[in-house]
Specification:
343 residues; mainly beta; Immunoglobulin-like; Jelly Rolls; 2 domains; 4-stranded antiparallel beta sheet; 2 helices; 10% helix; 39% strand
Length: 343
């Protein structure tokens, strides 16, 4: 009898644990509904690394002149450094300071990107100077699977001029090495999905106080492409290439992409996932051939990728920790994104 009682008690406890975990996952899923999309890596600039190329120190997954490509890349110096000046209410201890430099008598604006810089023109606005997504190198691209509603960022811009403006620019684009060219154009134009742009004047004078401001910039669906694959982001100390003062500097902290939960559910009826929530395996059924599958955790990190080339399969996800995930299913003409929960 004691064994039977012990067994029943054990089963009840296990059921209670499972129910509690299930409830926690559902609550977590709901509470994060506005931030469930892909985020930039290292958004608070807390992590820094020394690149093997030219021994340049940069924030992880963020880049400046020190890791540029192109004919004149050797003339570029790094234009970023770690700073202990952080935005109000920050839970971190670092931000990134961006500053201009002079190259052969030409002012090079301070420039930070999640992509990569290229320098192949002597003119500040030459077509050979651009920031770009480099798909072949994971350190220089950020995959994305939905259009954010907006971009939120904290900035502190110290400038000699009250009229000069710093600039930020983000583009969600298709499967291409997309470019922000120094002359103001973007290539290839048919790969643009949506963009967010904003210019802003100084928050204090050059070498002055560290006055921070929070910016919220909406994304606009202004491109012909309907297949979001990557996001390219750039922020510079001046909206005009070659302009500004060498005494200007720009501090950036805590960049975040904000999503509409209803948008994440787009096309969800095109795919059947079961069971969801699941314990170990997740079955996928579609009417068309699945080209690629990507699974992301709630911080936006890709935890699984595969190219099944079939319309139904059973995924063994027993090694994933319990919690909420986003699964992106690409079958050529559409990309389906759905939330899944492992318990």
């Amino acid at each position: 009898m004691w064994f039977f009682a012990y067994f029943c008690d054990y089963k009840n406890n296990e059921m209670k644990k499972a129910l509690a975990l299930f409830t926690t996952c559902i609550l977590l899923s709901c509470s994060l509904s506005a931030q469930i999309g892909r985020q930039f890596d290292n958004p608070g600039f807390e992590e820094w690394t020394t690149r093997e190329t030219k021994s340049v120190v940069e924030p992880v997954h963020w880049h400046s002149g020190g890791t540029a490509t192109g004919t004149f890349a050797g003339f570029l110096s790094n234009q970023v450094e770690s700073s202990t000046q952080t935005r109000p209410g920050s839970t971190g201890s670092k931000s990134v300071r961006i500053f201009p430099t002079s190259i052969l008598g030409i002012t090079a604006n301070g420039n930070l990107t999640n992509g990569r810089m290229n320098a192949s023109s002597m003119s500040a606005t030459g077509s050979g100077n651009y920031n770009y997504t480099q798909r072949s190198e994971s350190a220089y691209n950020t995959p994305i699977y939905a259009i954010p509603d907006s971009l939120v960022i904290w900035v502190c811009f110290r400038s000699e001029s009250s009229s000069q403006k710093a600039q930020l620019h983000a583009a969600v684009h298709g499967d291409a090495d997309y470019k922000f060219v120094a002359d103001g154009t973007e290539e290839p134009a048919n790969m643009l999905v949506a963009s967010a742009r904003h210019t802003f004047t100084r928050t204090s004078t050059a070498n002055g106080a560290y006055n921070w401001t929070r910016l919220s910039v909406p994304f606009v669906k202004d491109g012909p492409c309907n297949d979001p694959r990557y996001i390219l982001f750039t922020i510079t100390t001046n909206e005009t290439p070659g302009a500004g003062s060498s005494n200007d500097d720009l501090f950036v902290d805590d960049i975040e992409l904000i999503y509409n939960p209803d948008q994440i559910k787009e096309n969800e009826d095109l795919c059947e996932l079961s069971p969801n929530p699941f314990f170990k395996r997740l079955d996928i059924h579609m009417s068309e051939i699945i080209q690629n599958i990507y699974i992301y955790d709630m911080l936006g990190h890709r935890v699984r990728s595969m190219s099944p080339k079939t319309n139904q399969l059973s995924l063994d996800l027993s090694d994933l920790p319990s919690g909420s995930y986003l699964i992106q299913i690409d079958f050529g003409q559409h990309i389906v994104t759905k939330r899944i929960v492992k318990i």
